[in-house]
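Researcher: Good morning. I'm working through a list of sequences from a screen, and I'd like to move beyond sequence-only analysis. For each chain I'm collecting a predicted structure so we can compare shapes side by side. This is the next one on the list. No need for commentary yet; just the structure.
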Amino acid sequence: MESLDPVLLSRLQFAANITFHILFPAITISLAWVLLYFRLRYDRSGDESWMGAYRFWVKIFALTFALGIVTGVTMSFQFGTNWPGYMETVGNIAGPLLAYEVLTAFFLEASFLGIMLFGTKRVSRRVHILSTFLVAAGTTLSAFWILALNSWMQTPVGFEMIDGRAHPTDWLAILFSPSFPYRFTHMLLASGLTTAFLVAGISAWRWRRGDRGGDVRVALGTGVRLAALLIPLQILVGDLHGLNTLHHQPAKLAAMEGIWETQRGAAAVLFAVPDETSRSNRYEIAIPGLASLYLGHSLDAEIRGLNDFVGEHPPVKPVFFAFRLMVGVGLLMLAISWLSALQIKRRGEPGRFALGVLVAMTFSGWVALVAGWYVTEIGRQPWLVHGVLRTADAATATPAGRIGLTLAMYLSLYAVLLTAFISVIFHLAKKAGESEQPKQMNPVADPFHAGVGVADKERAQHGAGRSPGDDGGRSPEERRDA
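Model: Good morning. Structure tokens for this chain:
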């Protein structure tokens, strides 16, 4: 173990931590907004299906939020244990941004999370809706600060180096660095797609098991339609992000595309096996001129190749294949979301094939997200802060054996936690279906469930001796509780 490179082990350990951590904020950022949507739809329509969907998915949100906090703590420690040179060099910029994330975002989420989870019957509907909104806003604000820091590391501006340390000169420039708008939007859309396929996949799983209550129906429709809406936007933003990368990080872009020689009319490499020894692609399948067209918007646009950055470009294979994995999953998302949305529009539910694919793609958002994150972070190498701080110069002097031991411990723990997380989600879905079965078998016992609308509720109340509209001005929640 001691013969291994401690810098490589430190990178692997941080990659393991951030890979596991990012899975959970990727859900909570957008799931909070989906919950707000469920809550508002219930408040407007009085349809219990929406509140049923809210109650189920708020449990998933709470579980995901808790794991996101726990896994985020270990990353904070690693700035000191694995990368002491990072804070020594750019701590004047990174420190405040990380602090702002905790003070303005995490505290906002944590302060109102309890009301969101347990306040349905304890506070007014306005307070409950406001709390759900503030939690959602907090998750997005948290992403803002983290992506502002990461974008600055990719395209650093608004600072000056004094005695080997970065000092901020323009905080607005730091916050809104050249790559920030594209990276932030790309991440929010990725989070939305992750949640959309999670909601659609779990709902499709329940549907295939015969759990076809109103809450499952509205959640399935919401997930499918959200995915169908977001994936075209993600493709557009991804294209704009690629153009930004071409301008600011051409070595990363060349690795993504597998382009070795600077050339005009560059081909789009669909598949190849990059070989850094021969500095060429083996088994290449390419479309002539296409890369210049979508990168430079001209068939004759010049694209710089990796050979212009010898010793200064990232490892090619992981960036090249991660990029294709991300794009491939995105195309599958486009196809299945549009197919499912069309079937729902025509006949009220997806077909058997579409349901099966949705279940299989329940966690496809994670796959695309992690692949994209690897493109971003590995593609920045050999820099930790592009053009400012090299990764090797920031690494710890801790012996490789200790790093390797803790890496093995992290991986073992994360494997257990991830398995438990997925198992609990399906357990909650199965339990929710079983608890709804008696109500579906005997709908007369409770006319206020299984997707019954406001008019049906009023007819039920009228049959019990109350006149329609005799609700005393109460909200749907108050009528239900009564």
